Amino acid sequence: MKSPGRSLKEALLCAQSEDRLTIGVYESAKIMTDDPDSVSFCVLAMDEEFECDIALQIHFTLIQSFCFDNDISIVRVSDMQRLAEIVGDKAEQLEDAHCVLITNPAEGSWEDPALEKLHLFCEESRRLNDWVPEISLPER
């Protein structure tokens, strides 16, 4: 895949315009518990400031496990600030952009081509034993 970062940005913006984003660790966990079949894609964001946050690491481990068990594609990004710039429109979302979920589009609507590319990228990564591939988001 040429640019998974660009595809991720496109998929996030498309999902945001269709109100299909869930931002935040706790909000994401709630969606995954209440309606796991509605979740299409998961993005985990970590930066140096939070590398030693044990509680966040435990949440990430549980979210990753849940994604694996429910066939939800998952990636990591290392620039939480950039992810927050793309998806955040409220101050509290900027603070908790460690986990972002993209839910499935409404039945009968068009599939997002960028999201399809990301699913293929994740599938290929899993074949290479990279279970949670890291993607670099493009600059503005």
From TrEMBL:
Gene3D superfamilies in the record: 3.30.1330.30
One of the Pfam families matching this protein, by short name: Ribosomal_L7Ae
One of the record's GO cellular component terms: cytoplasm
Domain of life: Eukaryota
GO terms under biological process: regulation of cell cycle
InterPro entries: GADD45, Ribosomal_eL30-like_sf, Ribosomal_eL8/eL30/eS12/Gad45
Domain (Ribosomal protein eL8/eL30/eS12/Gadd45): residue spans on this chain: 8-91
Stated family: Belongs to the GADD45 family.
Name the record gives this protein: Ribosomal protein eL8/eL30/eS12/Gadd45 domain-containing protein
Species of origin: Monopterus albus
